[in-house]
TrEMBL record:
Protein name as it appears in the record: RpiR family transcriptional regulator
Subcellular location, principal: membrane
Organism the protein comes from: Streptomyces cadmiisoli
Listed transmembrane segments: 143-162
Keyword Transmembrane annotated: yes
Keyword entries, A-Z: Cell membrane, Membrane, Transmembrane, Transmembrane helix
Membrane topology reported for the UniProt record: Multi-pass membrane protein
Cellular localisation: Cell membrane
Amino acid sequence: MNCYDRRDLGLLLLRLGIGGVLAAHGAQKLFGWFGGGGIAGTGQFMESVGYKPGNASALASGLAECGGGTLLALGLATPAAGAAAAAGMTGAAAVHAPNGFFNTEGGLEYPLALGLTAAGIAVTGPGRLSLDHALGHRFNRDWMVPAALAAAAAGASAAVCLRAKRLRQASGGEQEALFEK
C-alpha cells in the first residue's frame, strides 16, 4: 500500500496549479484558445516587443508554456518541463521588467513567480503522485536537473540578449532620425 505524505500532496497541488496556468497561457499562444491570439496574433505581438521572427518566437514561447506546463502538471520529465517553463517566463519577465516589479503596473511579478515556481519544481522533483515516479524516474534523474536548467538558461539568455540588442538598435535609429530633423 502506498502512503502519500503532505509533501507529495503539496507538490501535486503545486504542479497542477502552476502547470495548468502555464499550459493555458501556452494554449492561447499556440491555438488561440481562451481568447488568445494563436501563432499569428502572438507572433505580431512578439515582433512588437522585439522578439523576431515573431511566429517562431510565438511557437517557442507557446511550446515552453503549454508543453512545459502540461508536463509539470503530469509530473513527467520534470527537470526539462520546469526548465522550459522557467525559460519561457524569463522571456516574458524581460518584456515586463521596464514596468517595474508589481503586476498592477504591468511589471514582472507574475512571470517571475511562475518561472521561479517552475524552476523550484524542477529542482525539488514531482513527488510520488506523478508519472515520473510511476515510470521509475526514467525522465527525472539527478543529472538532468542542472543540464536542463543550464540549457534553458542559455537559450533564454540568448533570446533576451538578442531582443535587447534589437531594441537598442531600434531606439538608436529613432534618436538618429530625431537629430536629422
